[in-house]
């Protein structure tokens, strides 16, 4: 296995053990079974290891969404439902997620959300274009609609940022469904899948 991946796995283990916040570079290297100098060959600091781990975790989520959509023979609405359900059910280790939501980690959290938004909005943009070809959607701004949709999921609906009640959460999804239906001029209740499974 790649040494870089071993180091990232070691930090992930420290998160699971609840020790990542206080762990030093030496602790990470020890957990990885390498010399401290070996760790510095790949990363300049603990922050850099953390940054790489977060990016890897989110890249795994992005890849899973991408592969499911590519393997699907569904229409645009089915693909959108599949992608968003996969994203919403994706799992980031609780201890890592809690760490990201600490005020001092705002920069790395923001960077990870931007990565998700940027990557998944490209996939959603292509799905919207498919919907235009299928005459399900009418839209002049597929990329911008995709970015707005993902900004809701990555920011507004992030429970670590906004602790909405279950009812508030569903109302936001209903409003989003209404906006998408009207904005994309899609058939009535096309986006009901956003809130009907809650």
From TrEMBL:
The keyword Heme does not apply. The keyword DNA-binding applies. It comes from the Bacteria. Residues 24-43 bind DNA. InterPro entries: Homeodomain-like_sf (IPR009057), HTH-type_Tx_Regulator (IPR050624), HTH_TetR (IPR001647), Tet_transcr_reg_TetR-rel_C_sf (IPR036271), TetR/AcrR_C (IPR049149). SUPFAM superfamilies: Homeodomain-like, Tetracyclin repressor-like, C-terminal domain. Keywords: DNA-binding. GO terms for molecular function: DNA binding. Residues 1-61 form the HTH tetR-type domain. Coiled coil: none annotated. Pfam families: TetR_C_39, TetR_N. PANTHER family: ACREF/ENVCD OPERON REPRESSOR-RELATED (PTHR43479), ACREF_ENVCD OPERON REPRESSOR-RELATED (PTHR43479:SF11). This is TetR family transcriptional regulator. The lineage of its organism: Bacteria, Bacillati, Bacillota, Bacilli, Lactobacillales.
